[in-house]
């Protein structure tokens, strides 16, 4: 038994409306002729839908769409006129892009890991009241554990001599909601020296004065961990992953605050004066503190002070160490004399004495 045919809707139709929607002029008679080819009937200002289209052509816009199908090939390809520019990147977004470019240029591969983990080093981390699984139960406060897991999976599949980095949010304990911070973290094969080199390159690219201070961290190797103004850097604890892996995790907001705008100076044509010094200090005095004291003593004419050697020996005494630094003195308007450099050296000696050290003669 067959059902009754649906009623044929009568739709109030305006050819001018079709021109407005499609963006092309089509004479009214041509529009009605096109609809007639599809089975529509015209009665004054109405068009009557054919029986076989009675359930999907119910409104004027539906009939307009039928005309548009015929005129589709005639629609010119144009781009919308841009009358204003909106949506500039924020300083943090620009910094994130630069950080990603630098790390990719150093041979690291960007990765993305979930923000939810089974556990977190911080016992007060936010835990979901109803997690979808035990593996995705806690909002992470650090990126490094996720990167360690990613490297472990790659190593198990035979990968070697590679590095990963991630730019993502972490969720620090707070009230009433977590404190979202954007971090960058990386893990590279090569141990402490490799991770420090990457961080120094990053600081140089961002024009950040990074200083390394001795630190400790449960994820890092004892004795091979340092803190910077923005985070930590060191060698991964061997219990977490076989081999020597360098790691770091930095807060991008802290890096943004420390980043300096570029300052352009004329190229100095006068020669530099280079000297090497050795500073003897107590073991508990950090290399960063020694370097800072040397810079303060040398003033504006001391352009560089790079530590290139660390020495322990019986002649220094118990609990003492010697740091060798290569100094570069340079003036923009003249060649420095020996007496001027000697005076600067004495200023450095005085500043080193204030931190309990001395210059080896």
Keywords, separated by commas or semicolons:
361 residues; alpha+beta; Phenylalanyl-tRNA Synthetase, Chain B, domain 1; BirA Bifunctional Protein, domain 2; Alpha-Beta Plaits; 3 domains; seven-stranded mixed sheet; four-stranded antiparallel sheet; 16 strands; elongated
How are the elements arranged and paired?
Elements: E1 10-12, H1 15-22, H2 28-37, E2 41-43, E3 46-48, H3 60-71, H4 91-105, E4 109-110, E5 116-117, E6 138-139, H5 144-156, E7 163-172, E8 179-189, H6 191-206, E9 213-214, E10 220-227, E11 231-236, E12 245-251, H7 252-258, E13 273-282, H8 287-298, E14 302-311, E15 320-329, H9 338-354, E16 358-359
Parallel strand pairs: 4-7
Antiparallel strand pairs: 1-3, 2-3, 5-6, 7-8, 8-12, 9-10, 10-11, 11-12, 13-15, 13-16, 14-15
Helix pairs in contact: 1-3, 4-6, 8-9
Describe it for me?
This protein has nine helices and 16 strands. The chain has three domains: 65 residues, Phenylalanyl-tRNA Synthetase, Chain B, domain 1, CATH 3.30.56; 168 residues, BirA Bifunctional Protein, domain 2 (2-Layer Sandwich), CATH 3.30.930; 87 residues, 2-Layer Sandwich (Alpha-Beta Plaits), CATH 3.30.70.380. The strands form four sheets. A seven-stranded mixed β-sheet has the order 4-7-8-12-11-10-9, with helices on both faces. The chain is α+β, with helices and mostly antiparallel strands. Strand 14 and strand 15 form a beta hairpin. The chain is elongated, with a radius of gyration of 35 Å.
């Amino acid at each position: 038994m067959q059902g009754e045919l649906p009623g044929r809707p009568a739709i109030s139709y305006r050819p001018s409306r079709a021109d407005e929607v499609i963006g092309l002029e089509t004479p009214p008679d041509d529009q009605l002729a096109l609809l007639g080819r599809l089975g529509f009937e015209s009665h004054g200002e109405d068009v009557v839908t054919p029986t076989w289209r009675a359930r999907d052509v119910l409104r004027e816009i539906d009939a307009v769409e039928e005309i548009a199908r015929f005129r589709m090939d005639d629609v010119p390809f144009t781009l919308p006129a841009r009358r204003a520019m909106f949506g500039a990147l924020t300083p943090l977004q620009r910094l994130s892009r630069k950080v990603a470019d630098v790390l990719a240029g150093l041979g690291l591969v960007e990765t993305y890991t979930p923000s939810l983990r089974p556990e977190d080093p911080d016992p007060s981390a936010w835990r979901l009241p109803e997690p979808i699984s035990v593996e995705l139960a806690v909002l992470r406060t650090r990126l490094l554990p996720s990167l360690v897991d990613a490297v472990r999976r790659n190593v198990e599949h035979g990968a070697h001599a590679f590095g990963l980095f991630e730019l993502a949010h972490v969720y620090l304990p707070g009230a009433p909601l977590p404190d979202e911070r954007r971090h960058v973290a990386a893990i590279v094969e090569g141990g402490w020296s490799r991770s420090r080199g990457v961080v120094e390159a990053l600081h140089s690219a961002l024009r950040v004065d990074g200083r390394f201070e001795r630190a400790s961290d449960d994820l890092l190797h004892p004795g091979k961990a340092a803190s910077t103004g923005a985070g930590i850097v060191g060698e991964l604890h061997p219990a977490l992953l076989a081999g020597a892996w360098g790691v770091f995790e930095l807060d991008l907001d802290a890096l943004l605050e420390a980043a300096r705008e570029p300052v352009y100076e004329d190229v100095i044509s006068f020669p530099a004066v280079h000297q090497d010094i050795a500073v003897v200090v107590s073991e508990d005095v950090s290399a960063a503190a020694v370097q800072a004291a040397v810079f303060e003593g040398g003033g504006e004419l001391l352009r560089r002070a790079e530590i290139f050697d660390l020495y322990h020996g019986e002649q220094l005494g118990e609990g003492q160490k010697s740091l060798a630094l290569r100094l570069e003195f340079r003036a923009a308007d003249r060649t420095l004399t020996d007496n001027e450099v000697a005076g600067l050296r004495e200023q450095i000696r005085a500043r080193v004495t204030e931190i309990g050290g001395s210059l080896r003669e």
